From TrEMBL:
Pfam families: Anticodon_1, tRNA-synt_1. Its EC number is 6.1.1.4. GO terms for biological process: leucyl-tRNA aminoacylation; mitochondrial translation. Keywords: Aminoacyl-tRNA synthetase, ATP-binding, Ligase, Nucleotide-binding, Protein biosynthesis. This is leucine--tRNA ligase. Belongs to the class-I aminoacyl-tRNA synthetase family. It catalyses: tRNA(Leu) + L-leucine + ATP = L-leucyl-tRNA(Leu) + AMP + diphosphate. GO terms for cellular component: mitochondrion. It comes from the Eukaryota. The keyword Ligase applies. It comes from Aphanomyces astaci (Crayfish plague agent). InterPro entries: aa-tRNA-synth_Ia, Leu-tRNA-ligase, M/V/L/I-tRNA-synth_anticd-bd, tRNAsynth_Ia_anticodon-bd. One of its GO terms (molecular function) is ATP binding.
């Protein structure tokens, strides 16, 4: 009939997602349209806040697209943001449990061993996140980039259960929660309060009064990896490069090395295979197929 239907005039098949008109059971044509009262496709933010909370709604809007771009609203994406906040809560709870378990030992509030590769990698990840989130928020207002960097940091923390209860883990959580504050202020405030169990000087402090974390260039400079360069499976060179160097940069740098250039002479590159390191301390691999 070429008319817009109200939400209560349609049904959605849970099995295949088919949309039908409730009165006639006819299949309805669906399309992405700009929200409009006349099209009955508006979203009441109060309903979203009641079901998911204001922080989740805010995160979805900021993460889905830059402010200057249109975004396709999909309530299914709200679950992703909600789960992310729950994972951060899980990190704080697990860290506090580790502190409680170590309360009667000399390990409470301990720093990880200086040479601990996982702890060193965590410090690099924290300072990298601080640098990128600060640039995204203060310089380019790229809120989606800032949230993505915080997600990377929380994912890194999620794989470091061995460091629960350590000072390194506490410092990382503190930085994560402080940087989360302008994006999800309500959750950040409660998370910060939960973290105060190991920091008596911050009792009754508000996360929104905390100084913004600053990155340490010396820590970032230490973030280097080894890249083994192979030609037809034989090692010809080893590069030491910044940990965030991409495959294209590594390829160009490798081809500038005299020993690599010598073995490439007269050959055509058929394929370049880059295998990044999966664990701290492991080398990456760059293989030229000729």
């Amino acid at each position: 009939t070429l008319r817009f239907l109200k939400p209560d005039e349609i049904t959605v098949d849970k099995a295949d997602g088919t949309v039908r008109e409730a009165a006639t059971n006819d299949v309805v044509v669906t399309a992405w349209e700009k929200m409009s009262k006349s099209k009955y496709n508006g979203v009441d933010p109060q309903d979203i806040c009641r079901q998911y909370g204001a922080d989740v709604a805010r995160l979805l809007v900021l993460f889905k697209a830059p402010p200057s771009h249109e975004l396709e609203w999909d309530e299914a994406d709200l679950l992703g943001q909600s789960r992310w906040l729950l994972r951060i809560w899980g990190l704080v709870v697990e860290h506090n449990h580790a502190l409680a378990a170590a309360a009667t030992t000399s390990q409470q509030g301990r720093y990880s061993q200086t040479g601990d590769e996982e702890a060193l990698a965590l410090r690099v990840a924290v300072h990298t996140a601080i640098k990128k989130v600060t640039e995204a928020l203060h310089e380019t207002q790229s809120f989606n980039v800032a949230i993505a960097e915080l997600m990377k940091l929380s994912n890194r923390l999620g794989g470091l259960a061995r460091l629960h209860g350590s000072k390194d883990f506490a410092d990382a959580l503190h930085a994560l929660v402080v940087m989360l504050a302008p994006l999800a202020p309500h959750n950040a405030s409660e998370l910060f309060a939960a973290l105060q169990v190991d920091q008596p000087t911050l009792t009754n402090a508000d996360v929104h009064d905390q100084p913004w974390p600053t990155h340490d260039d010396a820590v970032l400079a230490s973030a280097q990896i080894q890249v083994v360069v192979q030609i037809r499976g034989k090692t010809r060179e080893t590069l030491v490069v910044p940990a965030d160097a991409d495959a294209a940069t590594l390829e160009a740098l490798a081809l500038q090395q005299p020993n690599v250039a010598k073995h490439m002479e007269g050959h055509t590159i058929r394929k370049v295979i880059f295998v990044p390191s999966k664990k701290p301390g492991q080398h990456s691999l760059l293989n030229f197929v000729i």
